[in-house]
Design brief:
Elements (H helix, E strand, L loop, with lengths): L4 H12 L7 E2 L8 H14 L7 H14 L3 E5 L2 H11 L5 E5 L5 H8 L3 E5 L10 H7 L4 E7 L8 H11 L3 E4 L7 E2 L2 E2 L6 E5 L12 E5 L2 H11 L3 E3 L2 E2 L10 H12 L1 H19 L5 E3 L13 E5 L1 H4 L3 H10 L2 E2 L25 H9 E4 L7 H28 L1
Parallel strand pairs: 1-15, 3-4, 3-5, 5-6, 6-9
Antiparallel strand pairs: 2-10, 7-8, 9-10, 11-12, 13-14, 14-16
Bound molecules: pyridoxal-5'-phosphate.
C-alpha cells in the first residue's frame, strides 16, 4: 500500500529522531538521597552555622577518614584547592613529574607556583603513569611525583613508591577518579604521602563542589588545616600564609547524604559497567579498556578504545554520530595536557609521549555510573551495531557508485 505524504513525513521524522529521546551524559551527577540532604539542610538552617569548620564538615571528615581507613581527611572547597593546599604544605618547587594524560588542573597549579610540570607518558594497559618513564625523568630538581589513579583504578603504587623512596621525595596521588577504588584490598586514600580527592558533582562521590586531602601524617594534616583557613591557628592568631579553601556546611551535608548511599551508588556503577562489558563484546572494533583487576575499580568510568580498521569508522566520526543520537560520549583526556596551548612549550617538554598520543587519539568515554540503567546500556550497544552496519553498507554503496 502506498504511503500518504503525511505518513512518509512521519516515517522520515522517526528515522531522523535521535535513538534516545533524553540525552545520556557522561558522569551525570548522582542524585539518590534528597531526603538525607534536606533533613541536614534544615539542621544547618536552624543552627545558623553555615561555614568555618562547622558540625557537618567535622562529621564528614570523620566519616570519610573511617570509610577510607585513613587517619586524616581534610576537606576543601574543591579538588583543585585541595591539591593546591598540599603542594604548598609540602613546599614543592623545581620540577614535579605527572602524567600528561590527566585533567589539566595540577599542571596549572604547579605552573602558577613557578614549578615546572614534567610530563610522563602512560602505560598502554591501564592508562596510568608509566613507571619506567617516571624513573627516567627524575632529576636532582624533582621534588615530587603526582600520579593519577585514572578511570577509578589504582596506579602502580608499589613501584612508584620505591622510585620516590630512592629519590627521597613524596609520592602524591590525584585520586579524583578513584573514590571507592581499592589497592590490595585497601581503599584508595591511604597511599603515598597524601591522596587528593575531588568531590565535584560529576564524580562518583560528590558534595556538589568539594575535595579533600587524605593522609596518615599528623603534621601535614595540621598544616593543611591552617593553610585552608588563612593561616589562622586560633582566634586572632595567624601563624603562616594561607588561603581560603574551606568547605561550607551545605556541601558537607550533601556529602553525608551521598555517603549514606555509597554502597548503592557503587553497586549501580558496577552493574552498568558489566552491562557494557557484555554488550561491547559483540561490537567489533570497540574495546572497553579493562582494569588490571576487577576487584580494584569503582566501575564509574567507561573508557573505550576505537580500532578504526576493525570498527570501520574513526573515533571522531563515531563521536559525532553518537551525539546526533543523543548519546553524549566524550573524548577525554584529549589532547594530552602537554599539547594544550599553555604547555606546548619551546623547551619541548613532553613533545614525544607516544602512548599518551595513541590513547588520546582513540579514546571515547561512554555515559556510565549510576545514572544509567542496564537497559539503557543494552540500547547503546545495539545502536553501536546499527551505526557500524549502516556505515559499512554506505561505504559499500559509495564504492559501487564510485
Ligand atoms: C575532577 C578532577 C580534578 C579537579 O577536581 P575539581 O574538584 O573539579 O577541582 C583533578 N584531577 C582529576 C583527574 C579530575 O578528574
Amino acid at each position: 500500500m502506498p504511503m500518504h505524504d503525511s505518513e512518509k513525513d512521519e516515517a522520515e521524522k522517526l528515522q531522523d529522531a535521535p535513538a534516545f529521546e533524553q540525552p545520556l551524559y557522561v558522569n551525570r551527577p548522582v542524585a539518590v538521597n534528597k531526603q538525607g540532604f534536606l533533613s541536614r539542610f534544615d539542621q544547618i538552617w536552624d543552627a545558623r552555622w553555615f561555614t568555618n569548620d562547622g558540625p557537618m564538615v567535622q562529621e564528614l571528615e570523620q566519616a570519610l577518614a573511617e570509610y577510607l581507613g585513613v587517619k586524616h581527611c581534610v576537606l576543601a572547597s574543591n579538588g583543585t584547592a585541595a591539591m593546591g593546599l598540599l603542594i604548598d604544605a609540602l613546599k614543592l618547587e623545581g620540577e614535579v613529574i605527572l602524567p600528561a594524560f590527566t585533567f589539566v588542573s595540577t599542571a596549572h597549579l604547579l605552573t602558577l607556583r613557578k614549578i615546572r610540570p614534567v610530563f610522563a607518558d602512560i602505560c598502554p594497559s591501564g592508562h596510568d603513569i608509566s613507571v619506567d618513564h617516571c624513573r627516567a625523568l627524575v632529576t636532582d630538581k624533582t621534588t615530587a611525583i603526582i600520579a593519577t589513579h585514572i578511570w577509578g583504578r589504582p596506579s602502580r603504587i608499589t613501584e612508584l613508591q620505591s622510585i620516590c623512596d630512592e629519590a627521597g621525595i613524596p609520592l602524591i596521588f590525584d585520586a579524583a577518579h578513584a573514590f571507592g577504588a581499592r589497592f590490595q584490598g585497601q581503599m584508595i586514600g591511604r597511599f603515598g604521602r597524601a591522596e587528593v580527592f575531588s568531590f565535584h558533582a560529576t564524580k562518583i562521590f560528590h558534595t556538589f563542589e568539594g575535595g579533600a586531602v587524605t593522609t596518615e601524617c599528623d603534621e601535614l594534616a595540621d598544616r593543611l588545616r591552617k593553610f585552608r583557613n588563612f593561616g589562622f591557628t586560633e582566634y586572632d592568631q595567624v601563624d603562616c600564609i594561607g588561603t581560603n579553601a574551606k568547605m561550607s556546611e551545605v556541601h558537607a551535608a550533601m556529602g553525608l547524604a551521598n555517603l549514606d548511599s555509597i554502597e548503592e551508588i557503587l553497586t549501580n556503577s558496577e552493574r552498568v559497567y558489566e552491562a557494557y562489558e557484555n554488550g561491547l563484546r559483540s561490537v567489533k572494533g570497540l574495546h572497553l579498556a579493562g582494569p588490571q583487576s576487577k576487584a580494584e575499580t569503582n566501575h564509574y568510568y567507561i573508557p573505550v578504545l576505537v580500532d578504526e580498521a576493525e570498527f570501520g569508522m574513526g573515533r571522531d566520526e563515531l563521536v559525532s554520530v553518537l551525539h546526533s543520537e543523543n548519546v553524549l560520549v566524550r573524548r577525554y583526556f584529549y589532547p594530552g595536557t602537554h599539547e594544550l596551548a599553555p604547555y606546548k612549550t619551546s623547551d619541548g617538554n613532553g613533545t614525544s609521549l607516544p602512548e599518551t598520543k595513541s590513547v588520546s587519539d582513540r579514546i571515547v568515554v561512554f555515559p556510565g555510573g549510576g545514572s544509567l540503567t542496564v537497559k539503557d546500556v543494552g540500547r547503546v550497544c545495539e545502536l553501536l551495531k546499527r551505526i557500524q552496519s549502516r556505515h559499512s553498507h554506505k561505504l559499500m554503496s559509495d564504492t559501487r557508485l564510485g
